[in-house]
Amino acid sequence: MSQITLYTQDDCPPCTFVKNHLKANNVDFIEKNIKNNQYRIEMMDYDAFATPFILLDNQPMYQVDMDKINDAFNIK
């Protein structure tokens, strides 16, 4: 089964959209809010500088690709 990690920040509408979509489809995810400096550094280690930054099966997704996310979790 696929695994997804979201690097997010407060007041980020795209972050909220992705989280709500995953919750609505009963997809478990790990959220790492970058106000925690450790998570900010982790994200920057991937050369990512905007949220939401997504790791899908440990592969970085620099732009939100809902089709790819939906396919990974069999969301119709």
TrEMBL record:
It comes from Staphylococcus pasteuri_A. The lineage of its organism: Bacteria, Bacillati, Bacillota, Bacilli, Bacillales. Residues 4-52 form the Glutaredoxin domain. Pfam families: Glutaredoxin. This is Glutaredoxin domain-containing protein.
